[in-house]
Amino acid sequence: MSADETLLPLTDPLTEEDVRRVLQAAFDEDLDGAGDITSKAVIPADVRFSGVMQARENCIIAGLPVAQRAFLFMDENIRFHAEVNDGAEVSAGQAVAHIEGPARALLAAERTALNILQLLSGMATLTRQYVRAIAGTKAVLLDTRKTIPGLRRLSKYATRMGGAQNHRMGLYDAILIKDNHVAVTGSVAEAVRRAREAEHEQVEVECDTLEQVREAVKAGATRVLLDNMTPDELRQAVDLVAGRAETEASGGVTLENIRAIAETGVDYISTSRITMAAPAIDIGLDWK
After folding, report:
1. What is the CATH number of the domain that holds 238?
2. I want to staple 120 with a disulfide (CB 3.0 to 4.6 A). Which of 22, 57, 158, 221 is the partner?
3. Does residue 5 lie within any of the structural domains?
């Protein structure tokens, strides 16, 4: 990295190790050890480019620190100047970054950098729409584990930039008792008891019925996930829980119905749409 280059900060849940792992896999896939054979064939080694990265549609930007590291991965002397911060709302035509350096390295990194920035900005933009849809209610938007394999932390970073909170990162960091766990243990109460016996203080239970909600709360669950319930059922569940546990609505959540779900009084709403159904944002990079 050049002396005048400052790395854009990574924030939770991203780490340098996460980003380097993703970039290494991406460049291994794209360059396969041989590099950019077209640029090597037609562009002299001493040619330099400068370019501007622009949003071609209104969006929430997410992933600029990763894009910067993608270029520096190719050549540490590339200069990358961000014009906005991640999480910023930008308009079509607005510049988000200026880049300058050796042409071959820039072109080798371009597609990977854009792919990541477009994908994460798409997730952040859709997330912001969901967050705005429930503004003024007590409900907090959560993401899920439904993410592209290998991109879990990047995806959850993008949803944070859009205004959501992260649900559990994986199977390792939070207890969530689901129907298969109940099927093996025989009941919701027994599954909760075993989780408690294993010294887990926070225990979330997925409930399909109001009877399961009663059983989960009585057994000591700290959060109940109300799966695919109607707004009327959600209101009944919230009344039934009566503050003894947190409530989370999930399943079938869309932009069209999330407001009605939030107005039932649930504490959280989780949806996979913000990571699995978000269209990539059109972000261009023009070279001089």
Report:
1. 3.20.20.70
2. 158
3. no
